[in-house]
Amino acid sequence: MDGMIEELWERKEQAKYGGGKEKLERLHKHGHLTARERIEKLVDPDTFLEIGLLAHSDQLGSEEKSAGDGIITGLGKVEGRPVVLQAADKTVLAGTEGMVYFRKSKAAHQFAVKRGFPLLNLMEGGGLRMPDGMGSDGISQMLFPQELLLHNRKVPLITAILGDSFGGPTWTAVTSDFVTQVKGSAMAVAGPRMLEVATGEKISNEALGGWEIHANYTGQVDRFVTSEEDSIQEMKEYLSYMPLHSSEEPPVKETKDDPYRRLDEIVNLVPTRRQRAYDMKKVIRQIVDDGNYFELKSLYGTALITVFARINGKVVGIIANQPLKYAGAAGPKECEKATEFICLCDSYHIPLVFLHDIPGFRVSGEAEKLKMPTKIMMWNQALAQSTVPKISIVIRKSIGAAYGNMCGPTMGADFVVAWPTAEINFTGPEVGINVVYGRDLQQSQNAKEERLKLLESWSFDSSPYKAAGKHLIDDIIDPRDTRKFLSQTLEYACMKNGSMSERRLANWQTGF
């Protein structure tokens, strides 16, 4: 027995070196962490329980050089909460995916769903391994994993792209609820070498799938950082806003920040002159607990802000217009961003708060080519089907159809209110006057005076008092009471069933 136990520990120790000490040292030389070091930084000390340490490739002759078959899987705790995790090991066959790799990854996913634990993925690698996936028999066994395709947001999927990722790691990332990417890495369908052989195109990793591509064009990544440690920390922070699984609410975090705190400074942040820009993020900081929030896709669709924050300890998702960008007008990217965020929050029982300051949509010939009408309606459909508590506040302006997309009246909000600064109308006064009275004003001898009178009349029509007078909105609130109002209404809206939704959007695909 002693001899057998000794052999067992020797095998396990050998397996922990992955592709060998030389390759591990090479990673350190280039400033990278090993897969096991990444796990150590992710989970609480002494909580990692590895599953499949002694697994290896099932290809004859590859047993000794394929420790773990290129992926480490197991269980652990992050800030005391249980998780399932998998970490690609680039020192083993370049982190490519063989049959045993697939088997381990599938088992991890299935356990996470079965027991209701988030699945955290520390990813990099070259995709499907050759020769494992070659031939009709190879590829027939290694197509897209059904557990990933039918995940339906049962548990949070959280992914870090920590090195060049092609094929499988990319599929995992773009199916995840949250993705963080280290600058200098790439994420794409296939690598430059494969592209050159298959199509003749010569392109660098950075130009193919570097962070700027995903920040400015694809929106497939939520956050970008400069180090692996920062990326892992972002996974932890994101997880802190998430429930463990889809059958529970997000965790409440105690705060000493008074829920009824008066926001005296907020009146100086929002100009009463509607043409003047301001930073909506400063407004959000005033409202939320301790001024803290976690922003998603900050560089994509920049006229719209999507953040997680807490109000009186309760997690909320905030959708807000950003007047600093395009005056807050939404284009195709903003529509995609809003739709995906609504699906995410509704699936994980996170109440939604809408802060309006939007002059409408950025309509143009180019926007039409990008299916702007479809994207506007996708946003509306997601909003209509969402069943989490929703609270809507018109800060300054909310014009035209965009008033609906930002959860105006009849769009399913529990409460719709406005600040006294609000301007609500089919179109802005200046545009409306030009459309309706443009020709008359051109022929008028007192065009300037008549325009001012019309503007005064239309401005009154646009004020929130007419809507409040007919009880089309619930109230007009003092801006300084915004935090108190949200704290009160969230409590009442969550009184019966908490923030639990019907999860109608759980099977809407990620990454529209």
Can you describe this structure in just a few lines?
This protein has helices at residues 2-15, 21-29, 35-42, 99-115, 135-141, 146-149, 168-174, 192-199, 205-209, 211-218, 228-240, 280-287, 332-347, 365-369, 372-385, 402-405, 429-443, 447-462, 464-469, 482-493; strands spanning 49-51, 71-78, 81-88, 119-125, 157-166, 178-182, 187-188, 223-225, 293-296, 304-311, 314-321, 352-358, 390-399, 415-418, 423-425, 475-476.
Characterization of the model:
α13 runs parallel beside α15 and α17 runs antiparallel to α18. The model has no long low-confidence stretch (mean pLDDT 92). The protein is elongated, with a radius of gyration of 26 Å. With 512 residues, the chain is α/β, with parallel strands linked by helices. Helices cover 38% and strands 18% of the residues. It has helices at residues 2-15, 21-29, 35-42, 99-115, 135-141, 146-149, 168-174, 192-199, 205-209, 211-218, 228-240, 280-287, 332-347, 365-369, 372-385, 402-405, 429-443, 447-462, 464-469, 482-493, and strands spanning 49-51, 71-78, 81-88, 119-125, 157-166, 178-182, 187-188, 223-225, 293-296, 304-311, 314-321, 352-358, 390-399, 415-418, 423-425, 475-476. Strands 1, 2, 3, 4, 5, 6, 7 and 8 form an 8-stranded mixed sheet that branches. Strands 9, 10, 11, 12, 13, 14, 15 and 16 form an 8-stranded mixed sheet that branches. It contains 20 helices and 16 strands.
